[in-house]
């Protein structure tokens, strides 16, 4: 009999929870470690659709990347989105487990997958780790130097992005750094690694300005779209480490919305 604790132990084999950042809330989010599991669903987020699909497909455990509960809760009100999702999961004995920063820093996790998808060579972490994990972010080189247009199309195609925003991209380059998700704090590490272009999802205004003024090219992508590329690998690794069926749920994920493309260049009128 497989229980929720066995799912957690399976994740521990390739992305130990001991690798999680101190501020993180990875691990069991809802349910009991003793609940029986007969099928596992995997999704980037514990969206309402992910929970509903998992329940409809007969899953008794949902493994996600982003924690369902992140900030401390003062109350659980079932009329709120979070409270409603917790109620739906608990009513249907669907345990929710988050593999968050431990999956980010895993040698098999988010940043390694993103780097492999772009075909980066000579890869290394942006921030080294002494706990046995890969570390934060990734830097590497393209097989051949690319023009900005070639790289833009390659990035959008390989990561299945609907939009990107660029700053200070060189006409040609081959040194690239990546930080999946909220990686704005790592731009200086990217510069130290001699990256010409740094790609992440979330970056503060002044971080972007300082990075660009330091000569670094910056590319921003949608957070969910960027990290969703790693979800099939998370499901595959779970399947390899558990003697039961593992399926993907809510494949489209949270909609990144529409990006309005302005006419003309910045500073032009009309």
Overview of this protein structure:
This protein is α/β, with parallel strands linked by helices and 270 residues long. The chain folds into two domains: 4-100 and 230-248, Udp-n-acetylmuramoylalanyl-d-glutamate--2,6- Diaminopimelate Ligase, Chain: A, domain 1 (3-Layer(aba) Sandwich); 110-227, NIF3 (NGG1p interacting factor 3)-like (Udp-n-acetylmuramoylalanyl-d-glutamate--2,6- Diaminopimelate Ligase, Chain: A, domain 1), CATH 3.40.1390.30. Helices cover 32% and strands 21% of the residues. The protein has helices at residues 4-14, 48-56, 81-91, 101-104, 110-117, 148-158, 187-192, 205-213, 223-228, 231-241; strands at 27-30, 39-43, 61-64, 95-98, 121-124, 138-147, 164-167, 172-179, 197-200, 217-221, 245-248. It is globular. The N and C termini lie far apart (67 Å). Mean pLDDT is 94; it is low at 264-270.
């Amino acid at each position: 009999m497989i229980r929720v604790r066995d799912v957690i132990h399976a994740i521990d084999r390739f992305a130990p929870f001991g690798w999680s950042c101190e501020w993180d809330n990875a691990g069991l989010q809802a349910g009991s470690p003793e609940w029986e599991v007969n099928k596992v669903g995997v999704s980037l987020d514990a969206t309402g659709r992910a929970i509903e699909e998992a329940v409809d497909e007969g899953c008794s455990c949902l493994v996600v990347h982003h924690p369902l509960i992140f900030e401390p809760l003062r109350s659980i009100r079932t009329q709120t989105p979070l409270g409603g999702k917790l109620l739906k999961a608990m009513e249907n004995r669907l345990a929710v487990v988050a593999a968050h920063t431990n999956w980010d820093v895993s040698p098999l996790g988010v940043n390694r997958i993103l780097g492999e998808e772009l075909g980066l060579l000579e890869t290394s972490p942006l921030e080294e780790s002494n706990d046995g994990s890969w570390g934060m972010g990734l830097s590497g080189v393209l097989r051949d130097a690319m023009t900005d247009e070639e790289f833009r199309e390659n990035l959008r195609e390989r990561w299945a992005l609907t939009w990107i925003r660029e700053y200070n991209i060189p006409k040609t380059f081959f040194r690239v750094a990546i930080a999946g998700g909220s990686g704005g704090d790592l731009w200086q590490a990217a510069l130290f690694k001699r990256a010409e272009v740094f790609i992440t999802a979330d970056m503060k205004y002044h971080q972007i300005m300082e990075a660009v003024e330091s000569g670094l090219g910056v590319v921003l992508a949608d957070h969910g779209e960027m990290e969703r590329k790693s979800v099939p690998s998370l499901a595959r690794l779970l399947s390899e480490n558990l003697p039961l069926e593992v399926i993907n749920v809510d494949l489209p994920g949270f909609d990144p919305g529409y990006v309005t493309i302005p006419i003309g260049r910045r500073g032009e009128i009309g």
